[in-house]
Design goal:
Elements: H1 9-20, H2 23-35, H3 42-67, H4 71-79, H5 81-117, H6 124-132, H7 147-165, H8 168-195, H9 200-208, H10 218-231, H11 238-243, H12 253-285, H13 289-292, H14 296-310, H15 315-349, H16 353-368, H17 376-406, H18 410-420, H19 427-450, H20 453-460, H21 469-492
Helix pairs in contact: 1-8, 1-12, 1-15, 2-10, 2-12, 2-14, 3-4, 3-10, 3-12, 3-18, 3-19, 4-5, 5-7, 5-15, 5-16, 5-17, 5-21, 7-8, 7-15, 7-16, 8-12, 8-15, 9-12, 12-14, 14-15, 15-16, 17-19, 17-21
The structure holds 4-fluoro-L-phenylalanine.
């Protein structure tokens, strides 16, 4: 079977940027930067981008391009079953992320509609938890289905799986070529409006105010590395899969730089917009910016609706544009993460894209219904916490150590990238991958293990109280462990025969 291909270079870049630009850019980056030194955070951030983010992006683009397969197949071709499991591990972590990420997009979709008449009323927090999510059960219980979430969730999956069914070029590429420019235009409109609000400057000052002392704090560096991983969608199996659809003649290194810098620009823009809006709200309420600054669900679905309530005009329009931005940014990321297992299953078992979308995507959609129940938010929070802490960064660490040190593939891959790319990779690349990244990630993992997991978990998610220890620990460990176990089980299964042989000289 002919391998699917991107139609144009711009199409591939849009798709890669579409994956990278997601909820993380809008609701995570601004607060992470603010909390970790403000203006001074740009130093560790840029360092992490240049020594981990972009080098790993180049690595993954090269792997996908050279071995022409989804993550499991590419790793299998590179190092046999001893490496294949790593691809599946990433694929299963991606699977888990996709099931709850879809639900957040569904909320954003619903909030786009709520925006028009600010259906959330005055008490936006009460509205979110009690009226919209109907969170009335204890952690671990599901309660009934929340139809207000379920219906947009079905829509999210219909759109995503519909696009994947249409294929790489006619589906993913086309969708990104429409969604990404649209996202940029509407998000710019929101940001321009935000920076012209009263009090915007106070917010921007709070955001950019450098605390140079923070640079001496190792946890700030860990935050920068952690964020870069998440933000660039590396170690998710995504970028390997996407680059496996590149034509033979493609620039890799340049594409990675473009993707990395585009993602960071979007993130910076989001930081400016979010903090301008927070500054506006803080001055309306006569409080400090730090009192209203937050991230995640609280920022998007509690604080932003409040900001929209206080807007001087066109409240409905700007609210809808903001939530539409979240929806579009989320959908393009969801497509990319779903493609990792659609491609993985179809290659491993030799089934068509259609079957793989129906079974793989269908399974994800079914499981995601769990998060559309009354207890859904508790499950979502749990899966997100454990997968992020023990998923992506851990995969990144194992990936660089195995490839550079155990399988010693760095030079071959570097030669491959240099042969087809404009920008030539030098010692910086291998040094970053082989030395800097493992040291920082190793330190990060060690620190995590040392921490009392439960204690940290309670403080991290203190906003939803009442987790029982059994629920958190058993649920979380089960999710994280299941990803590795599935990874090993899947690599034990036989490849559909066409995929077996690979000539290294390709
Ligand atoms: N880079 C994405 C983001 O910033 O949101 C990370 C991501 C998350 C990608 C979830 C894909 C995904 F499904």
């Amino acid at each position: 079977m002919e391998r699917s291909q991107w139609g144009t270079r711009a199409g591939f870049i849009m798709a890669a940027v579409g994956s990278a630009v997601g909820l993380g850019n809008i609701w995570r980056f601004p607060y992470v930067a603010f909390e970790n030194g403000g203006g001074a955070f740009f130093i560790p951030y840029l360092f992490a981008l240049l020594t981990a983010g972009i080098p790993i992006l180049i690595l993954e683009f090269t792997i996908g391009h050279k071995y022409r397969g989804s993550a499991p197949l590419s790793f299998f071709r590179m190092g046999g079953k001893k490496l294949e499991w790593l691809g599946w591990w990433a694929v299963f972590v991606s699977f888990v992320i996709s099931v709850y990420y879809a639900v957040i997009i569904a909320w954003a979709m619903r909030y786009t509609i709520f925006s028009f008449n600010q259906a959330w009323g005055e008490d936006t927090q009460d509205f979110l938890f009690n009226e919209f999510l109907q969170l009335t059960v204890s952690p671990g219980q599901t309660g009934g289905i929340v139809w207000g979430v379920f219906i947009p969730l079905v829509l999210v999956w219909v759109i995503t799986l519909g696009i994947l069914l249409a294929g790489v070029k006619k589906g993913i590429e086309l969708a990104n070529r429409i969604f990404i420019p649209t996202l940029v235009v509407i998000f710019l409109a929101v940001v321009i409006r935000a920076v012209t609000l009263d009090g915007a400057l106070v917010g921007l000052e709070a955001f950019f105010q450098p605390d140079f002392g923070a640079i001496m704090d190792p946890s700030v560096w860990v935050a920068a590395y952690g964020h870069i991983f998440f933000s660039l969608s590396v170690a998710f199996a995504i970028m390997i899969t996407y680059s496996s659809y590149l034509p033979k003649k493609s620039d890799i290194t340049n594409n990675a730089f473009i993707t990395g810098f585009a993602n960071s620009s979007f993130e910076l823009l989001a930081g400016i917009g979010v903090f301008a809006a927070l500054g506006f709200m803080a001055s309306q309420q006569g409080v400090e910016v730090s009192e209203v600054a937050t991230a995640g669900v609280g920022l998007a679905f509690v604080v932003f609706p409040q900001i929209i309530n206080e807007f001087p005009g066109f409240n409905g329009l700007f609210g809808a544009l903001f939530f539409l931005s979240l929806t579009l940014a989320g959908l393009t990321s969801l497509m990319s993460i779903t493609e990792t297992y659609v491609a993985g299953f179809s290659e491993k078992f030799g089934i068509s894209r259609v079957k793989s979308v129906v079974f793989g995507g269908g399974a994800a959609a079914l499981i995601s219904i769990l998060f559309a129940t009354q207890g859904g938010l508790f499950f979502l929070d749990l899966a997100d916490y454990f997968i992020n802490q023990f998923g992506v960064a851990a995969i990144g660490l194992v990936e660089v150590v195995l490839i550079v040190w155990v399988f010693r593939k760095a030079d071959t891959l570097k030669a491959h990238a240099n042969e087809i790319s404009d920008i030539q990779l030098g010692g910086w690349w291998k040094f970053s991958l082989g030395i800097i990244t493992p040291i920082v990630l190793g330190y990060m993992m060690f620190g995590l293990l040392k921490l009392n997991i439960l204690q940290e978990f309670e403080t991290e998610t203190g906003n939803y109280e009442g987790y029982s220890n059994m629920f958190t620990l058993s649920g979380g460990v089960a999710v994280a462990a299941a990803a590795i176990i599935f990874g090993i089980l899947f690599s034990a299964a036989k490849w559909h025969k066409e995929q077996g042989e690979y000539d290294e000289r390709n």
